């Protein structure tokens, strides 16, 4: 019985290999080469770009924040235990070192701090963008009017009698 299942598995592998080989051959021979166009600057709304940046920064900060949170917590735990040798500070503590509630607390604290880092970046970008827009508005109000007679690049208009 076991031998039959091994033979069947070998046949399945051969059929799968032939199928994959055939599908790659078809895709290479009939597939069109198409390079996608890059996104235009106005194609994606600014709010979605900001949301994506918030997500990237928050998730990117999470591993580093988790290491720092574990290190700070284990150092505090070591200090409150009277500097016991078995509770030395470490950022790479094993799961046996902390109880389930402590691990949940460390994880939730790290998530909160990471979201705070992402939110801080979002707020700073909003303030900077608003400041830049105000500067542009102020620059629009400063229009210098140069008379045509004083402008060397001006094309003189023909006189009415000509």
Average pLDDT for all residues: 83
> What is the number of helical segments per DSSP (H or I, 4+ residues)?
3
Question: Low-confidence runs (pLDDT<50, min 5 residues)?
Answer: none
Helicity, in percent? 55-70%
Outline, from the CA principal axes?
Answer: flat
Please state roughly what percent of the residues sit in beta strands, choosing from under 5%, 5-15%, 15-25%, 25-35%, 35-45% or over 45%.
under 5%
One letter per element, helices H and strands E, the order comes to: HHH
Number of strands: 0
Structural class: mainly alpha
Distance between the termini: 109 Å
Largest sheet data = none
Rg on CA atoms, Å: 33 Å
Q: Can you walk through the features of this model?
A:
- This protein is mostly helical and 162 residues long.
- It contains three helices and no strands.
- Helix content is 65%, strand content 0%.
- The longest helix is centred in the C-terminal third of the chain and has 42 residues, at 100-141.
- The model has no long low-confidence stretch (mean pLDDT 83).
């Amino acid at each position: 019985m076991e031998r039959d299942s091994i033979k069947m598995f070998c046949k399945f592998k051969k059929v799968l290999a032939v199928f994959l080989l055939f599908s790659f051959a078809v895709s290479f021979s009939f597939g069109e080469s198409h390079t996608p166009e890059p996104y235009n600057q106005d194609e994606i709304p600014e709010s979605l770009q900001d949301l994506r940046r918030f997500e990237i920064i928050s998730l990117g900060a999470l591993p580093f924040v988790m290491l720092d949170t574990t290190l700070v917590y284990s150092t505090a735990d070591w200090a409150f235990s009277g500097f016991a040798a078995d509770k030395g500070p470490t950022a790479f503590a094993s799961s046996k070192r902390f109880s389930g509630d402590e691990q949940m607390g460390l994880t939730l604290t790290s998530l909160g701090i990471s979201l705070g880092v992402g939110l801080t970046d979002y707020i700073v970008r909003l303030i900077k963008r608003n400041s830049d827009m105000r500067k542009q508005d102020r620059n629009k109000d400063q229009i210098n009017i140069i008379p045509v007679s004083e402008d060397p690049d001006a094309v003189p208009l023909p006189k009415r009698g000509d």
